[in-house]
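pasting input
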Amino acid sequence: MGMDARHPGDGSVSKQREVSALVALFGGVYNNYLALSALLGDAPSRASEIFCLGDVGAFGPHPDQSVEILREARVPIVQGNYDRSVGMRRGDCACGYTDPRDNHFAALSYAYTFRNTSERNKDFLATLPEEIRLRGPRGERVLLCHGSPRRQNEFLWESLSPDPFLSRLLDEARCDVLAVTHTGIPWKRRLPDGRIVVNVGAIGRPANDGQTHVWYAVLDMTAKTPEAIFVPLRYDHERLASEMRAEGIAEPFVRTIETGWWTTCLEILPAKERARGVH
Amino acid sequence: MAAPNCPFRGLDSLWIQVSGLSCNLRCAHCFNASGPGNREMPVLSRAEVRTLLDEAAAAGVRDVVFTGGEPFLHPEMAEITGDALGRFPATLLTNGTLLTDRIVERLANAARYSRYSLEIRVSLDAPSEGGNDRIRGKGSYGKALAGVARLEKAGFLPIVTAVRFGEEDTPAELEEFERLLVARGIRRPRVKFLPAFRVGREKERSGGYGEDDRVTPEMLELLGPEHLLCSTARVATSRGVWVCPILVNEPGGRMGDTLEETFRPFPLAYGACATCFRHGAVCANAATAVREE
């Protein structure tokens, strides 16, 4: 398999940052600063470096809190579509939804985050890179991005990502390990040639499985072939729900936090992922 | 004025005109004028479809969409769906009127054992029998809803797909469809609207496009090609490979004999391109691109 970092024409190799064998990856904070704090407490015992794959804002309470925590902890962040929109002072989140019902809730959430993010933090979000490239201990070429290597807001769902398609994405992006978020549901795939794709899920909302915990991933490159391990993360979701209500955030968003079942932005879900939920 | 070229960005979706233009219905707005007795494009055999799936895999395809005509006029449609689902996500575009218990059960088996999604879109053009049957033909409303109910019973979440003739969907229209489906026992109704394309039989109905209904280079520059189906899809038929499902009846829409030779830019020279440009990719369940201003 292509674990050799010396690829002809790949000028980005020299810019890749070398990392150790255990790397924690999370995305989709959605202003859930309580889960973020829990993650920063939990991940150092499992990994030596931590990266955020973007979308700091959304429907959780007090947007500036999460940005400040990430800045304070100096966590490298890949820019998500939310971060770009807020940073560029755009009128919408550019989430990539196509259904008016999904867009209705996306607009409510975006308006709240936009209104409650300081100008200083907006400027900060605008400066984030669209991708981060890492080099593993064996020369593994690791690409961290938000949606997909080709588009910040592309949804990579497990049931809509066949192996030939993922192989093409990895070929085009010249990587051996691809890590994304954006959909909010974690999954991973090992391609026949050993390369891996991992969607790290989101720490901002549960994974539409009736459980209140959220997920992040640890990329383990200690063995010859890299592996991704999903880590369930518990946090004070009841406190988050009560703070969301105090902020006047729409009730369906709060119910998702309390029940673990998605209530909004359901139309974008493919058949298999939708069928696993209850709404 | 020269039409702008839509670049080709790679094959995300392969559409397969599996039953040609043969259909058991004769809808007033059908953009490729499918209907009973239309023999312009013979059906593709299961072996021919398998060969196409191999070519699509080599191109790194993301999903396969089966259309027609009516796919379930094909005697091996359930088996073909299984062949596709073993390798890729698949979508079936059907009028729903031929979905027997036996076919639905076989589809459900294929879907259950695949790691990929099977989306089934059933066309219904109005939430009332009169409104629908005026466009789609007498009796089509009841049969399509029976098909939707069978799919629901087998565990599918079918997407009812309606052509809208106005510019925008209205929440009231959506609610009417949802109320209808809930009343028919569909617990989680999924409804999508598609624009009408003034080509095929709809050209006779609506008068077609004017000379000014075109995508200009400035329009393409402003919004980018990402949300146009022809930047990432092709349509395979028994009469060669075409740029998109809308232009399969348009001589200029045919791009070649094999899939690979159609992986090149296409001139957006047709009125239908303007509809696609304004309303986004046809039937795509995945998100269309949002480009920065």
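fyi Confidence is low (pLDDT under 50) at residues 1-14 of chain A.
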